[in-house]
Amino acid sequence: MLKIFKIVAILEGVSYLALFSNMLAVKPTNLVLYKTLLFPIGMAHGILFVSYIILAIMLKFEQNWDYKKFGIISLGSLIPFGTFYVDKKYLQNV
């Protein structure tokens, strides 16, 4: 399950950055393209975010993570590049 979580973490981080760059780079220059890309990127990010949180909760009990480690891993999904930090710091040996 850790391998699946690692894959979801990376994909969630990439989708978050894609959504963020769509907002910052595409919206000011091309509003039509922004609106076209918003739904598929946003939906993918939403599904990956929910999957990340559910898997983190499941792994908290399976791996006996303490609350500090679980909190850091959970907050990693809210910060840009946070999931990459979680992958490097906590999931490197998978």
UniProtKB/TrEMBL annotation:
Keywords (A to Z) from UniProt: Cell membrane, Membrane, Transmembrane, Transmembrane helix
Pfam family, one: DUF3817
Protein name: Integral membrane protein
Membrane-topology annotation of the record: Multi-pass membrane protein
Domain DUF3817: 2-90
Segments traversing the membrane: 7-25, 37-58, 70-86
Keyword Nucleotide-binding: no
GO cellular component: plasma membrane
Broad class of where this protein is predominantly found: membrane
